[in-house]
Every structure is written in C-alpha cells, then in structure tokens.
From TrEMBL, chain A:
A Pfam entry, by short name: DUF3298
Name this protein carries in UniProt: DUF3298 and DUF4163 domain-containing protein
Location of the DUF3298 domain: 183-265
Keyword Transmembrane on entry: yes
Recorded superkingdom: Bacteria
Ranges annotated as spanning the membrane: 37-56
Keyword list, A-Z: Membrane, Transmembrane, Transmembrane helix
UniProtKB/TrEMBL annotation, chain B:
UniProt-recorded name of the protein: Sigma-70 family RNA polymerase sigma factor
Matches recorded under NCBIfam families: sigma70-ECF (TIGR02937)
Lineage: Bacteria, Bacillati, Bacillota, Bacilli, Bacillales
Residue ranges constituting the RNA polymerase sigma-70 region domain according to the UniProt record: 14-80
Organism of origin: Perspicuibacillus lycopersici
Segments forming domain RNA polymerase sigma factor 70 region 4 type: 104-155
One GO biological process term: DNA-templated transcription initiation
Single annotated GO MF: DNA binding
Family: Belongs to the sigma-70 factor family. ECF subfamily.
Keywords of this entry: Sigma factor, Transcription, Transcription regulation
C-alpha cells in the first residue's frame, strides 16, 4: 500500500478506544434472552383451586373473612439471601417468603415455588464456567399493598455480555387468602380479546406520539402481537387498576425492556366478576 | 427468521466490531465524547429498524451506514460540516507535491469533504470492497471509484487502478 495511506491508516487505527465504550454498548444493547420462565404446574393447579372457591361463593368468602379471631398480619419477608462470587461469575439473590396466611397450603405452595426458583438460579451459578461471565441477580418488591390486596413483583436479571430481565408477579387476596389469576378476575374468556384490543390501541398511540417507541404490531414484524396469553403476567395497582406486563422481547424490541400496560377499568367493568379487586 | 435470532446476531455484530464503529464515528467528530454519543445513538436507531433489515449477513455494512449517517447528522447540527466548497478543493489541489507536506497529511484528510473522506476510510482503513461501499453509500460503483480517485488526488496520493480495486 502507498506509504502515505499506510501512515494515515496507522493513525486511524491508533485512535484509543475509551473504556466507556463497553459501558455504553452494554447499556444500549437489548438484553440477551436466556430462557423463558415456565410457571410450575403445581402452583397453577393450586391457584385454580383457591380462586374457584372464592368465585363460586363470594358471600361465603366474605363471611369467612369476618370470623372474629385475631388474624396474623400477612406480609412478605426475606426468607434467604445468597451472595457469592467465583471465577467471573456471581450470584446475589434474595428469596421472598409470604407469612401470616392461615391458608398454609397456599402459603407453602407459593413459598416453595420461590425457594425452588432460587435453587435453580444457584445451580445455574454453580454450573457456569469461567468464560460464561454470568451474573445472576434476583430480588423482590411489594408493588401493591391494600387491606385486601398484596402484589409481589419478583425480578430476575441474568447478565452475560448484556443482561436479560424477567418480572413475575404474584397477587393474593389477603382477606380471602386466595391467589388471583388473570382468568379468575373475569366472567368468561372474552377478557383475552378485550384486553388485547386495548393494548394494541395503546401501542399504536404510543408509537404515533413518540417515534422512539416500537412494538411488534404491524404485518411487517415477524411475530406481531395478536393477543395476550390467558395467563399473562399482571398485577393490580393500589388504586385498583389492572396492569398487564410483558417480558422483554415478547411484544417489543429488546431496548424497550419489560413493558407494561394499564388497562382502563371502564372497558373491563362488564366482564369483571365483581369490583372487589378492580374498580 | 425469529426476532430473537436477529437480536442475537445484532448483539454479536456490535460487540465484535465495536472498536471499528467507534473509530469510524471518531474520524468524523474528532472527540471522544461525541464519538461515544454517536455510537450510542446509532445503536438506538439500528434497534428501531432492525426488524426491517433485509440481509442479515450484511449487518456490519448496514450498521456502518447508520454510523455514517448519524455522524453526518451530528456535524450538520453542530454546523461543523465541512462543505465541499470550491475554495477548499482548489487550495488542496493546487499545492505542489512537497515532502514536508506529510506532516499535514492528517489535517488534509480531516479537511477533505466528507464524501471523499468517507470512501477513503471505508476502502483503505476499514478494508471494505467497492461493492460494499457502494451499498453503504447507496451510490453506484463508478461514483465510489470516482470519489476515491478524486479524494486521493486531493491528498496528493498516487495509486494505480489495480491498487484502487484490489488492494
């Protein structure tokens, strides 16, 4: 190559790479998907059982709640915390536990699920090799606490080059001691359609208002969003609004992260079982 | 094609070539902070249009294109864009072939109008093929060749036709 060009190329290639580059890139890139979370079968079955009982006889449930003896306070505590580091791999996970429910079957099944999950994360940490550079973080947070409701958000983040974040929600009726599923809130399966249509409208509106937002909505997208899963992740806010949550990549490019949609109560009122939770 | 795969390929493409992308951005703005901003902004833009990418194997070229456009936009906003005004070109063309000029070679490259500078960087520093450059700039190959010749001439670098295409 021509000498002058050679000199220019050398100068070009010698531009120092700032250490901030890695940071900026990690921050901007979507989080790498590791694997999809599968709700353990046992818990789902238990949930069906309790919610059915509440739905079939709300009066009975109300009556039960009024039985005059001193109830324990239903709360969330940290059951176990693990923090370890070895060969470029680290784990920092707090395992929540629900306490104070008289319904010990429900309490135990929820707590077992949390413990089980932490165990799995720990196994993953143990199995990771030096080159995996894996970091696992797990934490929980009470997002809603009213006299009736308790919603717990569990956040799991696995980082490998870039990270992937998951949110799982558990919402329980503290008075009736029942786990709420999305399905149990509604009279029939119509909710899937009603909620999905509303979410699509919200997506479109957000994209119209802000060109930086993007959802998988049009036919050009490989897997456009059509409807929610009947057991989509959800929680209920303190002011009794329903919020639907999607994992990263589920309905939007990774940089959008975990996305949530608040569903207006007026479009749900006709299909809700009652106004105890959402109003 | 699953969208997960596109994302994964994109992530590896950026992580593997991050230094190249940074240097390219730097060559336009000439300072670290702005170059980092451009890389970040380019990734953001790329992610919004990633679902529309046509050829997944040409992702690196596709991202070069985004970096270049983002850098040029940035310079335009900063009004730092060197326009290809006749005076500059005349000034650069008229000088004689002096040896001491080498000292100013880098300055000369930086002062070169962007259209010439870009092709020289992509061809000789990033070692891209003429076809790839044409694709990135959305011009035909002959235009790219002409710009290369002209750019090299302005830098008073002489090169054979063979070197231009094959090196």
């Amino acid at each position: 190559m021509n000498k002058k060009l050679e000199a220019l190329k050398k100068e070009y290639k010698d531009v120092p790479i700032p250490k901030e580059l890695d940071e900026i890139i990690a921050k901007s890139l979507p989080k790498k998907k590791k694997h999809r979370y599968v709700w353990p079968l046992g818990v789902a079955a238990a949930a069906m059982l309790f919610t059915t009982a509440v739905n079939v006889s709300p009066e009975a449930a109300q009556a039960m709640a009024k039985i005059p003896f001193v109830k324990e306070i239903v709360e969330v505590i940290t059951f176990h915390e693990v923090k370890e580091e070895k060969n470029n791999t680290s784990i920092d996970v707090r395992t929540p536990a629900i306490s104070g429910l008289e319904n010990k079957v429900l309490e135990d099944s929820l707590n077992e699920k949390y413990i089980e999950e932490s165990k799995k994360l720990y196994e993953e940490f143990e199995a990771a090799g030096e080159n995996d550079r894996l970091a696992i973080e797990g934490d929980y947070e009470v997002v809603t606490e009213t006299p009736i409701l308790l919603s717990i958000r569990q956040t799991i983040q696995k980082t490998q080059v870039s990270g992937y974040m998951q949110h799982h929600y558990v919402t329980i009726d503290k008075e009736n001691e029942a786990l709420l599923t999305l399905k149990s809130l509604f009279k029939n399966d119509q909710y899937v359609k009603v909620i999905s249509e509303n979410i699509k409208q919200q997506m479109q509106q957000q994209m119209d208002e802000d060109p930086n937002k993007s959802y998988f909505l049009t036919k050009q997208d490989v897997e456009p969003f059509t409807q929610i899963d009947p057991n989509q992740e959800f929680y209920i806010t303190t002011d009794n609004q329903l919020v639907i949550s999607f994992d990263e990549y589920e309905v939007a490019p990774g940089y959008m992260g975990v996305v949530e949609f608040k569903i207006p109560t007026d479009i749900l009122s006709e299909i809700l079982v009652g106004d105890r939770y959402i109003n | 094609m699953k969208k997960y795969d596109v994302d994964t390929i994109f992530i590896s493409c950026i992580t593997e070539n991050k230094d190249d992308f940074y240097r390219l951005a730097y060559s336009y703005v000439k300072n670290q902070e702005d170059a980092l901003d451009i890389v970040q902004e380019s990734i953001r833009k790329a992610l919004t249009s990633l679902i529309n990418i046509k050829d997944i194997n040409a992702m690196k070229s596709w991202f070069y294109k985004i970096v270049i456009r983002t850098a040029i936009d940035f310079l335009r906003k900063q009004k730092k864009l060197t326009l290809a005004d006749d005076e500059t070109i005349d000034f650069l063309s008229k000088g004689k072939e002096d040896t001491y000029k080498d000292l100013d070679l880098h300055k000369a490259l930086d002062e070169l109008p962007i259209m010439y500078k870009t092709v020289i960087i992509l061809r000789y520093f990033e070692d891209l093929k003429l076809e790839e450059i044409a694709e990135i700039l959305e011009e035909n190959i002959n235009t790219v060749k002409t710009r290369l010749y002209k750019g090299l001439k302005l830098l008073r670098i002489t090169i054979t036709e063979e070197e231009l295409v094959n090196e």
